[in-house]
Specification:
The complex is a heterodimer of chains A (117) and B (114). Chain A has strands at residues 5-7, 10-13, 19-24, 31-38, 42-50, 65-69, 75-79, 88-95, 107-108, 112-116. Chain A is mainly beta and 117 residues long. In chain B, a hairpin with a 6-residue loop joins strand 10 (88-96) and strand 11. The chains are: A mainly beta (117), B mainly beta (114).
Chain lengths: 117, 114
């Protein structure tokens, strides 16, 4: 079946502009995660969605970052007033269930490479 | 606190050599989960294995094998008879019970030359 898809695959923007990154999870997966991969910080957790529960936003680095998940499926990560330090690869993952058993394994998309000039 | 350490930044081997990637973790939980992911040049993280803390049985899958030792907090990954297609960055990750996020190590870049 189809895996996690992300768009755009690459995004170049100017400092101060807002950007939106999109994630389509694997069909039927109830849990969705955003991570960021940068040279200086490695792979970092950003935010987690599970069903209709309140998201775990504990990894968001600042209030310029926000995310939504509509209808329990597609998610959008928004970065407002982008800064050069926001340049990174943003990875989305989904899992069939939040915890327990093999269903909790997180499957990752190809990522969006963001470059802020 | 949770932490994963992959001390090997980069390893270079010649095809058909065996290679072991080290992973050491820190956690206060008694129940936790360990993972290995592969990131080829295309960039997508590919799931390789998941291991529960209460299952220390080692696992073999084809040329891949994993050695989990709670006594040394290690979860090492061995590739037997490496191939050029094994060239990638390999990440070890930890998830504690009650938390959904994965905590990743810094990765080990494996270069397999013909």
């Amino acid at each position: 079946g189809a895996g996690v898809s992300q768009s755009p695959s690459n995004k170049v923007t100017e400092k101060g502009k807002d950007v939106e990154l999109r994630c389509d999870p694997i069909s039927g997966h109830t849990a969705l995660y955003w991570y960021r991969q940068s040279l200086g910080q490695g792979l970092e957790f950003l935010i987690y969605f599970q069903g209709n529960s309140a998201p775990d936003k504990s990894g968001l680095p600042s209030d310029r970052f926000s995310a939504e998940r509509t209808g329990g499926s597609v998610s959008t990560l928004t970065i407002q007033r982008t800064q050069q330090e926001d340049s990174a690869v943003y990875l989305c993952a989904s899992s069939l269930a939040p915890a327990g058993g093999l269903e909790e394994t997180q499957y990752f998309g190809p990522g969006t490479r963001l470059l802020v000039l | 606190a949770q932490k994963v350490t992959q001390a090997q930044t980069e390893i270079s081997v010649v095809e058909k050599e065996d290679v072991t990637l080290d992973c050491v973790y820190e956690t206060r939980d008694t129940t936790y989960y360990l993972f290995w992911y592969k990131q080829p040049p295309s960039g997508e993280l590919v799931f390789l294995i998941r291991r529960n803390s209460f299952d220390e049985q080692n696992e073999i899958s084809g040329r891949y094998s994993w050695n989990f030792q709670k006594s040394t907090s290690s979860f090492n990954f061995t590739i037997t008879a490496s191939q050029v297609v094994d060239s990638a960055v390999y990440f070890c990750a930890l998830r504690n019970t009650g938390f959904q996020k994965l905590v990743f190590g810094t990765g080990t870049r494996l270069l397999v030359s013909p």
